[in-house]
Amino acid sequence: MDNRKVIFKDLGIIDYKKAWDYQEELLQANVAIKSAIRKAQEVAGGSILIDQPLTTNHFLFCEHPAVYTLGKSGNISNVLMNEAELEENNIQFFNTNRGGDITFHGLQQVVGYPILDLENFYTDIGKYLRHLEEVIILTIADYGIKGERSSGETGVWIEPGVPGRERKICAIGVRCSRWITMHGFALNVNTDLSYFNNIIPCGIQNKQVTSIEKELGKKVDYEEVKQKIRKNFEQIFEAVTVE
Fold it and tell me: What is the distance, to the nearest Å, from the Cα of residue 24 to the centroid of all Cα atoms in its chain?
């Protein structure tokens, strides 16, 4: 299979659980297609069926109302608020099945969920994560911000090699099942960063979180940032997005 067409959809502002359920639905639909292909090939003695269905690739954009999400390898102690405080501040909380630790999602943060069949691209999770990082690095470079990788830490950082100056601008955490991805990245654009004070972001002590707005000292066009991410995604993944 080599199907690099990606169906793009901007979900707008959407509850975290609703978006998660939608991702699961898309992932499971692709898993079902793969299972059907495998069974058909077994019946056909391993030969490729000309009319076999193709899996579909999706790229979702959205914003979430304030929510903390904890990755499957995360530590609940990195959440510095109790249930009552979360409720009082109207912040949701979810344990998730993605990689990584604790992070925050909120308004004016671009959350991107690629549901890709990596067998249409390459079967290499490490490469996939580096490619997601590169999409963001290229995007913020358009605003004069130098994004970099931090050794041993997934995501995009500013000045990761300068002690006391390291700050994360984009968190990344994914899940992959049968080479089909879900979850993705969260780029802080004009995000209210005060919410990060209630957690130890990504479980990493003594490192800051930043946004495009904070780095530039001014708000930027949120819709423009999304357009740039989509363009850079097409370039890095050698894909065509369609609506």
Answer: 14
List domains and CATH numbers for the chain. 5-242 (3.30.930.10)
Q: Would the CA dihedral through 8, 133, 30, 24 be positive or negative?
A: negative
How far is 4 from 78, CA to CA, in rounded Å? 38
**Bridge pairing between strands 167-177 and 208-209:** parallel
Residue 92 CB neighbours (<10 A) = 16
Strand order across the 92-95 sheet: 92-95, 67-70, 102-105
To 10 degrees, what angle do helices 125-141 and 222-237 make?
140
Determine the Cα–Cα distance for residues 132 and 144; give it in Å rounded to an integer. 19
Residue 170 annotated among the catalytic residues of the structure: no
Tell me the whole-structure pTM to 2 decimals: 0.92
Q: List the catalytic residue out of 62, 170, 176, 202.
A: 202
pLDDT tens readout for residues 88-146: 999 999 999 898 888 999 999 999 999 999 999 999 999 999 999 999 999 999 999 99
